[in-house]
Amino acid sequence: MKRISPLLVILALLAGIAIFSFLKYIQMYKEKHRMSEKVEELSTEIAALEKERQSLEKELIQEQTLKQALESENQKISSSLKEARIKIAEYEQLLSESQQVVEELNAQVTVVKAENQALRDQIQQLQLNIAQLNQDNQKMQQELSSITELKKRIRQLRQLARKQRLQIGKRLHKELIICGNAGYVIRNGKSTLVSPNITIKVEPISPQD
Known about the structure:
This protein has one helix at about 5-180, and strands spanning about 185, 190. The protein is mainly α. It has a two-stranded antiparallel sheet with strand order 1-2. A hairpin with a 2-residue loop joins strand 1 and strand 2. The longest helix has about 170 residues, at about 5-180.
């Protein structure tokens, strides 16, 4: 068997090492290139994630601000709702009291209407009474006028009768003197001025319309 030279073995070993190293280098270069691409992809993804994080943080801030505004608005609405409930309760109480007042007023209106009707009836009766009194007054005035006229007529008749009596008395006095009565007006306890056969009577006239 032919003996292999140690130099060839060494060279072959070095060549193998060199080939292995070259292949390893190529593999490592590929891996590095792949890792670089991966790192670049990750960097791009990280940048995108960072941008998205910033956007989410900004959105979160907006959401928190909106939440605070909504909470403040909710508190205001709750306070307004509480005040509204209190006012509604007050309005209901006021409405109940107003309804009671309205019922009382309706009752009073009914009473007042009845009283007004009674007053109307009384006024109507008073008007009738006044009309009757006016008629009676007119009749009384007519009667009074008639009585006044009657009294006036009676005075006239009395004056006329007195005048006639005086005239008759004077005439009889003259006749008695002529007849010898010696000028006495009373003889034997009786008047000699009026003849017993002469009667003077005054009759009232009937009332004139």
